[in-house]
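Quick bug: Ionic transporter y4hA output formatted oddly.
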Amino acid sequence: MHAFIAYPLLCAATLTAGLIWPTLSVLLWLAVPALVLAVISSVHHAEVIAHRVGEPYGTLVLALSVTVIEVALVLSMMLAGGANAATVPRDTIYAAVMIICNGVVGVCLLAGGLRHKEQNFRIEGTGSGMAALVVMSTLVLVMPSLTTSAPGANYTASQLLFVAAGSLILWLVFVFIQTVRHRDYFLPAQDAADEDVHATPPTAHQAVGSFALLIVALVSVVGLAKLLSPTLEALVRQWQAPTAVVGTLIAIIVLAPETWAAIRAARANRLQTSMNLAIGSALASIGLTIPLVVLASIWLDLPLTLGLVPKDMALLVLTFIVGAITLGSGRTNLMQGAIHLVVFAAFLFLTFVP
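Here's what came back:
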């Protein structure tokens, strides 16, 4: 327990030193293990909070924490990059949706299927979340390439405001359904395989302390990822890979805490918790990011390109078709996990080899 108090502080200290002495090569080597410790710590403290407040509030805390920090990172990149960062929000959201819907879901289904053969989850909650995600993704990432009011893959200011409002409303309604009106749709069907569920809940003081350390750990994850991004960019140039590779790698790092928490839940036969994390994170990634990015774009007159190229549109459509089939019955096995992982592998490969 004391180690999980020290880990976030050590990671924050490493990040601070890296910001003060960015050219010191030894700090780059320390940033990698610090990043791993930050991910481990964030998952631990998120689970402490989840044990205190119960589901689905626990998964919502982790999803919101990661998304808020991700939004801050996207906005900082837009402000620093200007016209060169017009596609950063699009690339970040697209990568997040593909990583979550194929990578995270695929690993969870495969890991859970290998250990428990078949698993169940409530289709009432996950299905409504997936439907909202399809609508939000289509409005944000696909329609800009098909509309004619603005040149290129862009929206006009009024179209941006409409899409931002629609995304935020859908996310708020989903959170209301998840936490108030139909909370039972998002509760794990069985907890017998997870010993932590039956342990004594932490005190309010411990939960507050874990929340503070969770924020420190998540800030460290994003900060260390950004600290390592120049090295990643140099490697990308050396490999002559597309620039979108950097955004994908950073998205994988930022989503690592949620991924690990989701896999742990699937192995403990709590696939519902995994689905809550995955779908909730994808919805928050759009529902929170787009309104703030749109407001910043209009207010500060920043260029914003949201429309995907045809290759990425096809993969996004494939992702939702596969998800509707594999998650449509509420029962899963390892074959479905393998299918999602093949789509995820295609996304990664075509990012490197467009």
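Actually, after a second look the formatting is fine. Residues 191-198 have pLDDT under 50 and may be disordered. Closing.
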